[in-house]
Amino acid sequence: MNGSINDSAAQQQRDEKFMRMAINEARQALKREEVPIGAVVVAGDRVVGRGHNLVETLQDATAHAEMQALTAASSTLGGKYLRDCTLYVTVEPCVMCAGAIAWSQAARVVWGADDPKRGYTTVEGLRLHPQTVVVRGVLAAECEALMKEFFKELR
Amino acid sequence: MNGSINDSAAQQQRDEKFMRMAINEARQALKREEVPIGAVVVAGDRVVGRGHNLVETLQDATAHAEMQALTAASSTLGGKYLRDCTLYVTVEPCVMCAGAIAWSQAARVVWGADDPKRGYTTVEGLRLHPQTVVVRGVLAAECEALMKEFFKELR
């Protein structure tokens, strides 16, 4: 379900503000020559977790931006459920991260660029927690530009 | 795909040996009043990673046995891919862990008890890496007995 249709202008502005923070995280990843994906978790107006992709740095296939941000948020808040939180991530989560988001029961997930290859929505039947509202396409062009920059340099 | 049909008696014995180690990990979880699930990662005949469910202890919804074991194995081996490794886990992996296993490109995944509620095979269209052989039902009764013991005590 896409919640963006009913989002107010204030909500949209807020989403863009936090997505810019996620983009800053993605830039940190790019500096480390990692696939540039960043994430922040927000409770109210407070950033309670952040992270960027560290798969190459840590040589750990599970070290995605979302995983870092969710774990950081749970640590900050002292609880495994993130029911009042919004996760912002620059690129559509993969299956692993979608599973983690589902366990966290996050209230909202907001992403920038779709991932038509590895995004969880490519798997038919895969859903987040029923309470979780999904908003896609926030600052998508900026999020995608970072990814294109990275993959262009690889060639 | 279930690879168990062609498994030799030696392979089966080997699988049971390592599943017993995963069961020991699950017992560690039970002692901490965690859902008793344990995992080990094996390369050749060497255990390179192990872990048990720590969701309550760490208050982190991502702290599943498989995640701990995969991250430990990558750390031991110094690489993000676990292409020569087998992951043993007492209960069928969830969506998150299936996603992590897919990224790791593990050669084999062996589990004990099925999880008809949260197991990744309940999601239509969700697959591990095409190279990964899946074996299910190894020491299933023992793995399930631990789960039943835990949930009986909760009631």
Automatic annotation (TrEMBL), chains A, B:
Indicate which residues the UniProt annotation says bind Zn(2+).
64, 94, 97
Q: Which UniProt keywords apply?
A: Hydrolase, Metal-binding, tRNA processing, Zinc
Q: Which reaction does it catalyse?
A: adenosine(34) in tRNA + H2O + H(+) = inosine(34) in tRNA + NH4(+)
The coenzyme or cofactor needed here is: Zn(2+)
One GO molecular function term of this record is:
zinc ion binding
Going by the record, the broad EC class of this enzyme is hydrolase
Where, by residue number, is the active site? Answer: 66 (proton donor)
Membrane-crossing residue ranges in chain numbering: none
Annotated GO biological processes are: tRNA wobble adenosine to inosine editing
Subunit structure, interactors included: Homodimer.
Q: What is the protein name for this chain?
A: tRNA-specific adenosine deaminase
Q: Which organism is it from?
A: Alistipes communis
